[in-house]
Amino acid sequence: MTALPSSTSAGRTLEWSGRCELCEAAARLRCSRCRLTYYCDVDHQKADWVSIHEKICQLLIPVRTSLPSLTSEEERKYRVEQLVKRQKYIIDLTSSTAQKFIFDGKHKKALPAALHALRFSTKVYGSSSVQLLPAYLLLAEACIGVGNLQQASNYLSQAQWIVLRTPDCSGAFQHRLHRSLGLLYVADGNFNQALYHLANDIYLASSTFGLKSVEASGGYFHMANVFFHQNKMDIANSLYAEVTDIWHTFLVKSVQTQEQIHKLRAEKSPFTEDKEVEVSEDTMTEAQQAEAIQVLNAILDIREKEPKQQPGETARVLHALAMLYYLIMDLSKACEIGMKAFDLLKQLPQQEPLEAIGYLLKLIDSQASCTK
Predict the structure, then answer these.
(1) Which residue pairs from 185-192 have beta carbons closer than 8 angstroms and sit at least 24 positions apart in sequence?
(2) Model pTM greater than 0.70?
(3) CB 3.0–4.6 Å: which of 98, 183, 223, 287 could bond 114 by disulfide?
(4) Residues 99/138, Cβ–Cβ less than 8 Å
């Protein structure tokens, strides 16, 4: 990791004033690189740096520097458009970074990035826009992860208020709100309310993205965890199987897409124009990769610890994980898990899954040979 930039002390010769980037207390320190970001102490500067500031330090300079006096309306309009584009880019970067930290279980690290996402979303869209919902939900989930349920509840209240003020709020936003509320009630031990909100999450996600979408799978997964904690194993196992099937189907399509891209690149003639092969919509985002790793490994752990083993279900999770690690180019892990699935499936009468795993292992071996 890049070294943390030195800070300038406030002291008596301080010619600037500001508020801490994380807590808004009076600032004593300033980032020596961008010179536009302030902190109350070293701990908050370090927390911001490891979360997001390292990535956005230089991006903040054109965004937080006042626009020069311009001679024409056209030039002023152009500068404003460029400013908004930069701010939206920072929103996307901070949001995706916070989301990945949350899926990785690093909730404390997610908080500064999510705060930046909220701050810039407010600047671009206004304080009551529905576009603020993703940032509020990220902050709520990060707070749940660090055990600050009261602050999480405050953020979710803000999100609910925005939804109430937006009659045409999309299902894509509403399902995420219900999921966050479900997670809050799980953390608080109120499983009945948790199941109510997770059921709404699944309904809205299924209506918006499709019954077998990865967007809906998260609701099934968290609902399964509730039933698991209630020791209702039949329902939990059924839901875990549903989540596995959704990700398995999605990953099969993603592997097929990856193959098509490799094939097109291999078939490109040296006499054709040097253009990148277009990436299909079936390819995974970083957030989806992190979610899949979290969810599938959690289900695998449950499957392998079950008193009554279900080799077919376990092998299906292993197959999905092998495809996932193949896609993110962790080939040694993909091969290890793929072989584990292959050995497990050899004990079962069905040959079709065995052939699919065998084909995946060939792809992994072929890719490994290409990267040597």
Answers:
(1) 186/222, 186/225, 186/226, 187/144, 187/147, 187/149, 187/152, 188/149, 191/226, 191/229, 191/230
(2) yes
(3) 98
(4) yes
